[in-house]
Amino acid sequence: xxxxxxxxxxxxxxxxxxxxxxxxxxxxxxxxxxxxxxxxxxxxxxxxxxxxxxxxxxxxxxxxxxxxxxxxxxxxxxxxxxxxxxxxxxxxxxxxxxxxxxxxxxxxxxxxxxxxxxxxxxxxxxxxxxxxxxxxxxxxxxxxxxxxxxxxxxxxxxxxxxxxxxxxxxxxxxxxxxxxxxxxxxxxxxxxxxxxxxxxxxxxxxxxxxxxxxxxxxxxxxxxxxxxxxxxxxxxxxxxxxxxxxxxxxxxxxxxxxxxxxxxxxxxx
Length: 269
Known about the structure:
Blueprint: H1 5-8, H2 14-22, H3 26-41, H4 46-73, H5 91-100, H6 104-107, E1 111-116, H7 122-135, E2 140-144, H8 145-157, H9 161-169, E3 173-177, H10 186-199, E4 204-209, H11 217-220, H12 223-234, E5 237-242, H13 247-254, H14 258-267
Parallel strand pairs: 1-4, 1-5, 2-3, 3-4
Helix pairs in contact: 3-4, 4-7, 8-9, 8-10
């Protein structure tokens, strides 16, 4: 009597496992036996079996790449798309962010500039967008602008500024948080301008600022340098204005008990 396909299955040959390891096909190595058993029961054709194995390999590699991108991004934990309170922002802001979510702006090297008062949710909004970009396989790097400037200054002193700028150029999206908090040092301005100039039309810059353009002379010191920086950022950009109240202030007010509010009420009498 002829053996069935299931009966013909044997333990994996050692040589096959070694070949799959050498070819760096971990999903093939881990799942080809179980999928072979399933293929025998279904039954699948040989191309269907091979497709199922290849699908597992692609899925595993995609998950691994996303995990590596998430780790390299340095995005703050907890500031995701799902945790952002989109109901707080104007409808036009929600529409803008939704249109950016597919990541197509990265291919056009467009920038995203988010303005608003402290506590409006600027950082969370860009981190949420960054998270979505990472999930799609895009490389993202998040940094506090003040800390990144200090890193650039140290690199300049060590004659490694070009190397650091080149490393940052490898990311499709560079998120600079709190541009308005850069100290008023001409040397800091110079390295920041160098970074922005090098990324112009080469990679997207996503930044937050509590300062309008009219006050950017506080950052770049010189009117001509300020104008040049703004020109490079605004050209090919999406400007998002978060004109909402401070989320932290609202949360603090809503968490106050009637006892906490009593002094204010008494003061108003």
